[in-house]
Design goal:
Strand content: 35-45%
Oligomer: single chain
Radius of gyration: 15 Å
Distance between the termini: 15 Å
Structural class: alpha/beta
CATH topology: Dihydrofolate Reductase, subunit A
Order of helices and strands: EEEHEHEEHEHEEEE
CATH class: Alpha Beta
Helix content: 10-25%
């Protein structure tokens, strides 16, 4: 079983602004879809709330201090938990648990990296500074490169990078 993070960052490790992604890049979304399909995803409340709905074929596990919030919501996650550790424990029982994905946001990413819970990071690094207000933590200890692919579109220049410790 592997615990992975999947995230897109700008050159200053920015991941979001005003509770939204900094960029929506078709190729990055396709990669995310392909990698996470059939696997459980663990995320914070704000990240889940930013989704238009449930992502198909994934068990959604949301971390929140206020689980009652989801009782009246039209779109409910599969599981609501109160900590990252509890979320990972729940994910281990879900279909596709050979790889569990941590989806964010910033606080959840920081906690996962700081506690050494993450085996692999799937990064998309987008060229430029997008003036983010939410950032990905330092990932300097992840030095083993599994994948490195440079991409250029008419709108963005970016790199797919897969790292392990």
């Amino acid at each position: 079983m592997r615990i992975s993070i999947i995230v897109a960052v700008d050159e200053k490790r920015g991941i979001g602004k005003n509770n939204d992604l900094l960029f929506k890049i078709k190729e990055d979304m396709q990669r995310l879809r392909k990698l996470t399909d059939g696997h459980p995803i663990v995320m914070g409340r704000k990240t889940f709330d930013s989704f238009p709905g449930l992502l198909p074929n994934r068990t959604h596990i949301v971390i929140t201090r206020d689980p009652e919030t989801y009782a009246a919501m039209p779109v409910k996650p599969h599981f609501v938990v109160s900590s990252l550790e509890e979320g990972i424990k729940k994910a281990k029982t879900a279909p596709g648990a050979d790889e569990i994905f941590i989806f964010g946001g910033g606080q959840i990413f920081a906690e996962a990296v700081e506690k050494g819970l993450v085996d692999r990071i799937y990064l998309t690094i987008v060229k430029g500074d997008y003036k983010a207000d939410t950032f990905f933590p330092d990932y300097g200890e992840y030095t083993k490169v599994i994948e490195h692919e440079e991409m250029v579109t008419t709108e963005h220049q970016f790199t797919f990078l897969t790292l392990e410790k």
